[in-house]
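Page 42, continued from yesterday. The earlier attempt failed because a stray header line got pasted into the input along with the sequence. Redoing it now with the clean sequence only.
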Amino acid sequence: MLSESSSFLKGVMLGSIFCALITMLGHVRIGHGNDHEHHHLQPPNKDDILKISDNERMGLSKSFRVYCIILVKPKDVSLWAAVKETWTKHCDKAEFFSSENVKVFESINMETNDMWLMMRKAYKYAFDKYKGQYNWFFLACPTTFAIIENLKYFLLKKDPLQPFYLGHTVKSGDLEYVSVEGGIVLSIESMKRLNHLFDDTEKCPEQGGMIWKISEDKQLAVCLKYAGVLAENAEDSQGKNVFNTKTVGLFIKEAMTNHPNLVVEGCCSDMAVTFNGLTPNQMHVMMYGVYRLRAFGHIFNDALVFLPPNGSDND
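This time it went through. Structure tokens are written below.
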């Protein structure tokens, strides 16, 4: 009986120590602390864009290039097809990274089902192969619809040689991270720092968390925080998110409930970059609404047009 009591007490003590350890780890601050200058990012002022000379506009439209990474698995084949047929045509280059070899579509085989390992390998592949060709890298899920022209406009005045890591930020304890559901944008400087950290398995382990597994977007934030790169929320001039983790339909439904007299104004940003949770059919509907539907007699006078690269099937 005494032996059983002793074992019970030991168990209680070990459990208490373990809980204390978890609490301590939850409050550990990683990286460079509070030396980050920007946290809520907004697009450039349209009046400033109008002041750009014609030569500068032409140079920007040709030189501003975004590389898109889409992480997929065989079960996503219908979404995969929809993404390939719709918004990825507007990336300057888009490549699909799959968990295994899939004969139906061309992809780069990551040979793992682990989402963090897939993300990690995709970033390394993209940096090693394209670091001299692209300054911005956009990663998305197969359920995400992105408007790449709005992304380029948002990034127009951002220096890719600075460590940018932006999208839709979420707070988890002391860790702030960019949700993969809304898409993740990294500048070339952030990619360089991240790939340097991949060699440090203590700060950026391949297998995720120290005690329990955490999601791939949180793990990315942990690694980047060690490199002094902090998550930043992307907003329009009115403070509305431009990277969204829900569908347009869900936003409208919420606006009709919460702001019945301001459904459009209460819904989404006019300069939205992403929406998430879409079905293949919804992808094609979004493509129609964003790129094909036009009001007759209405003239579009955008201050800057982003031209697709030569040989692109951008429609």
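Notes: Residues 44 and 160 are 15 Å apart (CA to CA).
Reminder to self: strip header lines before submitting.
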